[in-house]
Amino acid sequence: MNARSIIAVSVMLFFAAIIPLLAYDMGWPPGAEENFRQRLQDLGEARPAQPANQNMEASNADISAGLKKYIDSSTRKSTDRRFHIRYRGKDLALDLVKVHDDRIPTLGSGKCFACVDMKGADGRIYDIDFFMALRPGKLTVTEMSVHKINGKPFYNWKQAGGVWKKVKIS
Predict the structure, then answer these.
(1) Is 0.85 topped by the overall pTM?
(2) Do the strands 138-149 and 125-135 form a parallel or antiparallel pair, or are they unpaired?
(3) For the chain, which residues make up each domain, given as ranges?
(4) What angle do CA 63, 148, 167 make, to 5 degrees?
(5) Nearest to 168 by CA among 110, 140, 160, 157
């Protein structure tokens, strides 16, 4: 055997011996390192390559759950335990009534919106449109707009080519 072969075999034996010790030091149970290696290999083989621009579809239930989580998180952070939005220079303190998850229209390019009914501290019912960007595994609220107060709309929606657009009320 030449020196390179001896060094290569020694390095391989070293790593073969050290990986279980490292796994033990990291708190892994016995045999976990092999399971970990196998899972890494399975992930590499099982995932087909996806184009970078491919949009992942999310169900209405997923979007609704993400939106409720967003509203709940904002509510928990506020001192009065209400959701706050600025409207015409005023701060509206709102309580969630309902997310209209039966219809969540798409705006194209991985964007959508959902209507949410909220009750204000003033007793009015506000229909708030939440605009969201959808990315794989992530929902981001990009804008909020007061659509209606007590059922009176400030704008409407019109579908064109499968995409919804805001239209002014004449």
Answers:
(1) no
(2) antiparallel
(3) 3-46, 60-168
(4) 85
(5) 157
